[in-house]
Amino acid sequence: MKNFLKITLLATAILSSINFSQAQQSTIKEDFKPSVLNQPQQEYPMVNSQGYARFKIVAPAADSVRVSLGLGGRGGTKLAKTEDGSWMGTTEGPLDEGFHYYNVRIDGGKFNDPGTLNYYGSVRWESGIEIPAQDEDFYALKNVPHGNVQQILFPSPSTGTSRRAFVYTPPGYEKGKGKYPVLYLQHGWGEDETAWMSQGRANLIIDNLIAEGKIKPFIIVNTYGMTNEVKWGKIREFKIEPFQTVLVDELIPFVDANFRTIAKKEQRAMAGLSMGGMETKTITLNKPDVFAYYGLLSGGTYASTDFKDKPQPKLIFLSCGSKERPDGVRKAGEELKTTGFNAVSYVSEGTAHEFQTWRRSLLQMAPLLFK
């Protein structure tokens, strides 16, 4: 009797699980469209209006195919083999709005999805997918005047080589004679100097804000934030001094000499996401005579005690996603304000440690700069 009861309960549980899965699947809207980040003429991956993603991988000789850990939760998305030998699957639930990295595991090996474009993240070129966002208009490509993003190579005697940076100059820069403030904007760990303009769409965000009359034009500079390579989990081994030398003593003088900048502390800002926030905090406190505007985007916080015997910056901007640690950001902002600092805290609703948080953060921070 006991064994019969156990079998009955087990069967009920399995049936309930199947019914739940079927019910869940029935609620998914079949309005899937190719991701906007797909390579030309590639149909998959697809996304629907609810934020689900659907994948198709052609690997007829494979025994198992899974989309990378974390995408869709619970160990990733396991794909099922179809009659034509391809593998297909849909995420278990909707994904957060915005950009996501992912890769494909085929029989345990890590590969990129041949259907989509690649973006540098996690110390490798990863596949990327864009989940449509309700507020995506602020980073959309619109029929407005556009700035220019150019690659520069600047000499770095301290590292014995030339290093790369990307410089955004606002619309009208090439035809004008005016000088501009500069925001030095840093990427996160595992990314590089391409991240903010590619994944973050920073140039489009600033183009749109300028076109709407919400900000005065300024220059943005992105450079690689690593001078000693640090592996995952070893971030405490990162040494700021070599990168600080590259940024403060080599890159900034090069930018000031080759672009029409207002080469003054009062017209210079530094901000960064995640590890770039850590770099920003350390360098701004080490070099308070270089920058006047500070921004930490999912990159820690400042406290009023950090500024003992140091001048107050013109602005401290702190942000993160609501799925991170928003209370810490809010409390730090309030503590700074109550002690006399011009501090602003912002929390991106419904996002985590991801580019939609940082896109929104740039949108909120940009109008506060260079006042």
Automatic annotation (TrEMBL):
It comes from the Bacteria. Pfam families: Esterase (PF00756). The keyword Transcription regulation does not apply. Residues 1-23 form the signal peptide. Keywords: Signal. PANTHER family: ENTEROCHELIN ESTERASE-RELATED. This is Endo-1,4-beta-xylanase/feruloyl esterase. It comes from Emticicia aquatica.
